[in-house]
Write a structure and sequence with these properties.
Keywords: 4Fe-4S, ATP-binding, Cytoplasm, Iron, Iron-sulfur, Metal-binding, Nucleotide-binding. It is found in: Cytoplasm. The protein has ten helices and 14 strands. It is of the alpha/beta class and about 325 residues long. The strands form four sheets. Strands 5-6-2-7-1-8-9-12 form an eight-stranded mixed sheet, sandwiched between helices. A hairpin with a 2-residue loop joins strand 13 and strand 14. The longest helix is centred in the middle third of the chain and has 17 residues.
Length: about 325
C-alpha cells in the first residue's frame, strides 16, 4: 500500500458540484506547505480533474517507476536557506528564503492524451481507478495527503472510503473537510454528505463556507453576493465544527489562471492584515516571478486559510 508512509489523510467533500472543492483543496495544500509540512494532493474527480490546472502543472506527465507511479511535483521543500534537491540537500540560493514543505499531485488529468478528452467510464472502471490511485502512487514520506473528490456520494466515494477504512490505520484517517456555499439549495445537498460521513464512520473535521462574499478588485469592499451564514447554521444543526467563511477573490483567480501575484486597492484589510496594494505597478515579469506557493502569500485568502489550517492542525495533531 503506497499510503504506509503518509501520516494524515484528509478528504475534501461536498454533496454539491461547483462549490469550490478543488479551490479549497489547493489552498489547504499551499497553506500546509507554508507551515513546513510535506503535502500530497490526490485528485479522484475522474470526470472533471482540475487539480493540475490549479497548480499550473497540467502539461506535466506522470513518470513510471518500479512498483507504481511517481506523483508530479509542484515544488520541492525549502528549509530557509534554499530549495532542497531530490536527495534532501539544500540547493544554493542567495540569502534566506521562506520555509515551506514539498508538494506533489496525482490526477487522472496527467494521464489523458488531451486535457479536453472526456472520461466516459462506468462505475466498475471508476472504482478500479480509485483503488489503483490509492495503491500504486509512490508518495514516499508525507505529513498530509489531501484527497479532492467529485460531488455526490457515488462510486468514487464508496470505493475511496471502503479502501481507506480497510487499508489505512485509524491514526492515518484524520477525517473530512466539508465544503458548501451559503445558499439553501447548496446546503440541502451538502447535508447528505454529512450523513454519508456518519454512515461510513468518517470523522468530520469541519465545514468551510465558500463564496460567502466578493472582494471587489477596484475597491476594498467585500459584498455578500450569495448571502452569508448558511454554512454556519448547517454546522450548528449537525453539531460539527464551523471553520469559517471565504469570499470570492478575483486576484486568486488571476494567480491561478495567469500566474500573477495578487495586488489590491489601498485600504484592503483581511482578517486584520493589510494586503499588498497596487500603488506601484510591477512588470509582468516581476508579477509572474517565483513559485505559486510564494505568490499565494500575497492573496487575501491566505490569512483566512492560515487560521483554518491552524484549527485543523489542533484537531489532527493535538
Amino acid at each position: 500500500m503506497s499510503l504506509k508512509d503518509v501520516k494524515h489523510i484528509v478528504l475534501v467533500l461536498s454533496g454539491k458540484g461547483g462549490v469550490g472543492k478543488s479551490s479549497v483543496t489547493t489552498q489547504l495544500a499551499l497553506t500546509l506547505s507554508l507551515k513546513g509540512h510535506s503535502v500530497g494532493v490526490l485528485d479522484v474527480d475522474l470526470t472533471g480533474p482540475s487539480i493540475p490546472r490549479f497548480f499550473g502543472i497540467e502539461n506535466e506527465k506522470v513518470r513510471q517507476a518500479p512498483g507504481g507511479w511517481i506523483p508530479v511535483p509542484v515544488h520541492a521543500a525549502q528549509n530557509g536557506h534554499g530549495r532542497t534537491n531530490g536527495n534532501g540537500d539544500a540547493a544554493h540560493t542567495n540569502g534566506l528564503a521562506k520555509v515551506h514543505g514539498s508538494l506533489a499531485c496525482m490526477s487522472l488529468g496527467f494521464l489523458l492524451g488531451d486535457r479536453g478528452d472526456a472520461v466516459v467510464w462506468r462505475g466498475p472502471k471508476k472504482t478500479a481507478m480509485v483503488r489503483q490511485f490509492l495503491s500504486d502512487v509512490l508518495w514516499g514520506s508525507l505529513d498530509y495527503l489531501l484527497i479532492d473528490t467529485p460531488p455526490g456520494t457515488s462510486d468514487e466515494h464508496i470505493s475511496l472510503v471502503e479502501t481507506l477504512l480497510k487499508e489505512a490505520t485509524l491514526e492515518q484517517m484524520a477525517g473530512a473537510v466539508i465544503v458548501t456555499t451559503p445558499q439553501a439549495i447548496s446546503i440541502s445537498d451538502v447535508k447528505k454528505e454529512i450523513n454519508f460521513c456518519r454512515k461510513t464512520g468518517v470523522n468530520i473535521l469541519g465545514v468551510i463556507e465558500n463564496m460567502a462574499g466578493f472582494v471587489c478588485p477596484n475597491c476594498s469592499e467585500c459584498t455578500n453576493v450569495f448571502s452569508k451564514g448558511g454554512g454556519q447554521v448547517m454546522a450548528q444543526e449537525f453539531d460539527v465544527p464551523f471553520m469559517g467563511s471565504l469570499p470570492i477573490d478575483p486576484m486568486f483567480i488571476r494567480l491561478i489562471e495567469e500566474g500573477k501575484k495578487p495586488v489590491y486597492p489601498e485600504g484592503t484589510v483581511i482578517d486584520g492584515q493589510a494586503m499588498q496594494t497596487n500603488g506601484h505597478a510591477d512588470s509582468d515579469e516581476a508579477e509572474t516571478a517565483g513559485l505559486l506557493v510564494e505568490k499565494y502569500t500575497a492573496c487575501s485568502l491566505y490569512p483566512l486559510f492560515d487560521g483554518m489550517v491552524t484549527q485543523l492542525l489542533s484537531k489532527i495533531e493535538p
